[in-house]
Amino acid sequence: MHAPPRYIPPWRDQGVLITHSTCPQLGRTTEGEEMNIRRTLLGAAAGIIVTGSVQVQAIPIATELMLLADVSGSLDTTDFNLQRDGYEAAFRNANVINAIESVGGIAVSLAYWSESAQTAVGWTTLTDSASSNAFADLIAAAARPNNVGNGTGMANAMNFGANEIANNGYEGSNVVVDVSGDGADSIACSSTANCAAVQTARDFLLNSGVDRVNALWIEDEAQPSSRKFFCLDASCNINPLDYGSTNVIGGTGSFQQVASNFDDFSDAIASKIEREIVPQVPLPSTVLLFGLGLAGLGWTSRRKQRS
Prior knowledge:
Helix content: 25-40%
Low-confidence stretches: 1-29, 37-51, 283-307
Distance between the termini: 74 Å
Strand order of the largest sheet: 5-4-3-6-7-8
Strand content: 15-25%
Number of strands: 10
Mean pLDDT: 81
Largest sheet: 6 strands, mixed
């Protein structure tokens, strides 16, 4: 009398399930053979864990652009809407789209910041009008965050940008951080004209793979608050161009620009983004007069070494 075939239970080790139905070539095995197969499978799984992991290759791109937009308490709802609409319009702007197409594509992300920072639209590849307009749609749909505080944590925002760039999966030939704001850092430096924490954040960006840190300042003199705190008039507490040159901008070809108020923001940010996508030949340090205000161009000799 023949003994009935022995039942071989399914094995479930390291996520691997093997039965006769999934692996019929096992056939009828002895207990010793089963153990050998089991050890082989476990050893292979352990070898994968010990010897290596899947390597993800960075995506080559012409420009990586990290946009850091101030949404601190000094911006009322009207100001925020004007700023958001300005970013949206920039990526629908024909000159910006032409710039994107001329370099073969960019990777861009927008973050809103106050005391801390939060991603509004994550890293996205733009190559043409369709993708740029789709990114503009995402900006339009992004709500103002309600969990980043009300103060002006510029150093925190710049450090957030450094981490975003380090982990975005791109390898750009031109890496730019674009800071916009209407005041000095009030978290790390109590709104003083010289802020070591912001300088440290800038230097960290430049030493970790960023080519340029640029800035767009919005004067508060012409805003409804009329604080006369952060503006170009001699009576203002802090001159934004001086603040930017001392603390924020850096890298060969870096520049800063001032818009007189949020009504002027849309045209200012469009021209700025266009310029950031297609870097210009560095000029001597100077101040140029634009239709919307003054743009100070601060050039430095620092250039980080690409790894």
